[in-house]
Write a structure and sequence with these properties.
The complex is a heterodimer of chains A (370) and B (355). Chain A is of the alpha/beta class and 370 residues long. Helices cover 39% and strands 11% of the residues of chain A. In chain A, strands 1-2-3-4-5-6-7-8 form an eight-stranded parallel β-sheet. In chain A, strand 4, helix 7 and strand 5 form a beta-alpha-beta unit. In chain A, helix 6 runs parallel beside helix 7. The model of chain A has no long low-confidence stretch (mean pLDDT 95). In chain B, 40% of the residues lie in helices and 12% in strands. The chains are: A alpha/beta (370), B alpha/beta (355).
């Protein structure tokens, strides 16, 4: 395989891009779970982790259900020179990514955070530890970085406790779930989470992946990693559909949902479809007072990585207009292999203000950081 | 709105099995005995609750009983109503939902023979899809072989949500038989309900079941392409029935993006999925999940980069539109002509043989 990397400095990028940007999807990892996460875990859970490991609703003890396309699913140039996994060194991330791409706001979305563990008590303890670790190892080390409150979301009460524990803490800009929940997200078992997010004024980010246990397609498990990756978009559609059709946005009008790393071009066709079906089934949905597209327009934001790449940029421009430019948040997915490069992003031509908001302003507005 | 010009070919309408009694003459003695003795219920899928709004358009719904059971009404409302020259019947009786392979095989044969005797023999404008038991691909291929000699059967019918994603090699004997006889695979909305209808579990509302079909079509297309069905069967066409179509371009962008990054995993996919779709995938026009303005519909149509992918359908007697408003605003006259006549004729080569 040909692997081409380039060395880039902040001077290179400032000449070509100049813009300050927000990166709404960065994945930090601990260099060592024992050294960085265990200090925040009770002895009981440290022992549990050693004895049983991190048991998810998937086949393997370690590693994903589908082997990735790259080691650690990461850019080959993202391994810190001092050692450790990509994304495990705050100083190197600063130099390799934040400095050169002029990232003013980097939103951390930890993935091995305990979310989706079969044992919800362990999930809650682990999420809490990872949330502490985000402050000690990341946000306190680099002021450009902000954390996400990882929730043990399959248990609403434990999640609410974690949200309340972190409410008002400026280290965090959002609460954080994974898309593949064990039941559709609009269902009542999750409602207390939405109330708590609204009360704490935290947008709720919902990231691709997850361990709900249902097959990742409604026709069963697919064969390939590529199918698993593409299918996040279908899970995201199911999530948005459920939130709308269960009346969550009617019930919790302050709720803001950020769909992370699941694409965005699927949203307009989904909204058109939901509108048509809602119109014909209003008897069944007395709690949904407005056309679904209106709730979606008001309550759903999307990060743009992995960026859609049709042959013609004008087609993408149509789509982005249909969604609303103010709802799109730039993200790179650093340090992962499918990183979107802000310098080379095939963004349709738009005016300067729209471009600046796309790269930065929309995120500052959403997270109240202007 | 562009009117449907006379002579259109309706690629998706639904004569319904009124009840299992109507099928009894088409079973052999063993199965007739089984059905009566065991009191087998009607195989009406939960995909279409009999009285749900979208199951039957208000003016196409009889005062009692199911819509779509009466040939005379179908003639007046669907065929004369749109001045269609030909119409393809997709019977949705829940054969694919059974857990017993041999029972499903018996039901598929009965439904197909009932379709021949009660509909095709009585109305020359009708064509039909072959109902198969996907529970057992060998049985399914045998049923295709049994009926392929009758040129009024123009397609093989499957449901979008089965036991496994439809690209899986398990199903390839079906595709091999279909290709051998020049039959497209029609993949219709619906589920065998082996899995939740969303990848995140069972929803609460029928409306969600309906909406979720579009995501099922997306992952099914991912499966057919990544498994290499179109590389193995280069003549095969797949028609997505009652699928919606607005989602197709953006789904191809996404699959195409990951194909660029991960094609090493599926080396038999040697070109962009959108190019494969243009050659192999067709979609029926109703239901239409289109934007509210004609201008936006026109822009959406451009995203297809092809005027050959869409096929006219009324989805009779399902309720997708009112009056004769069968085509969305924003189609040019030329595109409407392609959708209503040229594309169906190009997709179903058998229509020319018997027309």
């Amino acid at each position: 395989m040909n692997v081409k990397t380039e060395t880039r400095t902040s001077t290179d990028v400032n000449q070509s891009a100049k813009l300050a940007i927000a990166d709404c999807d960065i994945h930090p990892s601990p260099k060592s779970v024992e050294k960085e996460i265990y200090p925040y875990l009770a002895k009981r859970w440290q022992k549990h982790s050693e004895t049983y490991g991190l048991l998810l609703r998937q086949p393997y003890q370690n590693g994903p259900a589908y082997p990735k396309g790259q080691p650690d699913a990461s850019r080959r140039d993202a391994y810190p020179p001092e050692g450790g996994r990509p994304g495990s060194n705050v100083k190197f991330m600063g130099e390799h990514h934040l400095d050169v791409h002029n990232v003013q706001l980097g939103v951390l979305n930890p993935l091995k955070s305990g979310q989706g563990l079969q044992n919800v008590d362990f999930a809650a303890a682990y999420c809490r530890a990872v949330n502490d670790w985000q402050i000690s190892h990341w946000t306190s080390q680099d002021a450009r970085l902000k954390g996400s409150v990882c929730l043990p979301y399959e248990d609403a009460a434990l999640s609410v406790a974690e949200i309340e524990r972190r409410a008002g803490d400026p280290n965090y800009v959002q609460a954080f779930m994974l898309i593949r929940t064990s039941e559709p997200m609009g269902q009542r078992r999750y409602w207390p989470i939405y109330d708590a997010c609204a009360a704490a004024n935290l947008p709720l980010a919902v990231h691709a992946f997850g361990f709900g246990g249902s097959p990742s397609t409604s026709s069963g498990w697919p064969s390939y990693y590529i199918e698993d990756m593409v299918a996040h978009a279908q899970s995201a559609q199911a999530m948005v559909m459920s939130l709308v059709m269960e009346g969550v946005f009617e019930r919790t009008p302050a709720l803001k949902i950020v769909v992370v790393e699941a694409g965005f071009a699927w949203l307009p066709p989904l909204a058109w479809r939901l509108d048509r079906i809602w119109e014909k089934n209003r008897d069944e949905l007395p709690h949904v007072n407005r056309p679904p597209s209106e709730y979606i327009r008001d309550h759903v934001w999307l990060t743009t990585q992995p960026f859609e790449e049709p042959d013609r940029r004008s087609h993408l421009k149509d789509t982005m207009e249909w969604i609303g430019w103010d709802k799109l948040l730039f993200a790179t997915d650093y340090p992962h292999w499918d990183f979107d490069d802000p310098v080379r992003l095939p963004l349709p031509k738009v005016d300067k203000a729209t471009r600046e908001n796309f790269f930065l302003g929309n995120a500052l507005d959403l997270y109240g950081l202007r | 709105m562009p009117a449907v010009a006379p002579g259109a070919i309706d690629c998706d309408l639904h004569p319904a099995v009124p009840n299992v009694k109507a099928l009894l003459p088409y079973f052999d003695e063993h199965w007739r005995d089984m059905i009566v003795q065991r009191g087998v219920h009607e195989l009406d899928s939960i995909s279409y609750p009999n009285n749900a709004p979208m199951t039957a358009r208000p003016d196409w719904k009889p005062e009692t009983g199911k819509a779509g059971v009466d040939l005379d009404r179908l003639r007046v409302e669907a065929l004369d109503g749109f001045q269609t020259s030909l119409a393809i019947c997709n019977c949705l009786y829940g054969v694919q939902l059974l857990y017993t392979e041999d029972m499903a095989y018996a039901y598929a044969r009965a439904v197909n023979d009932w379709m021949t005797a009660e509909w095709l023999d009585k109305e020359p404008r009708l064509r039909a899809s072959i109902v198969i038991p996907p529970q057992n691909p060998e049985y399914a291929a045998a049923e295709i072989d049994r009926l392929a000699g009758d040129k009024r059967f123009v397609q093989v019918l499957m449901l979008v949500m089965d036991e496994m994603p439809l690209g899986r090699r398990r199903y390839w004997p079906i595709y091999k038989a279909a290709e051998r006889h020049g039959l497209p695979i029609g993949i219709h909305a619906g589920s065998a309900y082996r899995h939740p209808v969303t990848p995140v579990g069972w929803p609460s509302y029928h409306a969600e079941d309906s909406a979720a079909q579009a995501q099922a079509f997306q992952t099914t297309l991912s499966s057919l392409m990544t498994e290499g069905v179109f590389a193995e069967f280069p003549e095969l066409k797949v028609v997505l029935l009652e699928s919606g179509f607005a989602w197709l371009p953006s789904h191809m962008w996404r699959l195409g993006k990951f194909w660029r990054g991960l094609r090493m995993e599926i080396p038999w996919v040697d070109r962009h999925p959108m190019e494969i779709a243009k050659d192999h995938v067709r979609l029926t026009i109703n239901p239409r999940d289109v934007p509210p303005s004609a201008d936006a519909v026109e822009r959406l149509m451009n995203h297809f980069e092809s005027d050959e992918m869409l096929l006219f359908s009324t989805d009779y007697p399902h309720w997708q539109f009112d009056g004769d408003d069968a085509l969305p605003e924003g189609l040019s006259r030329a595109l409407a002509q392609k959708i209503c006549q040229d594309n169906p004729l190009a997709t179903y080569s058998r229509l020319k043989e018997t027309a």
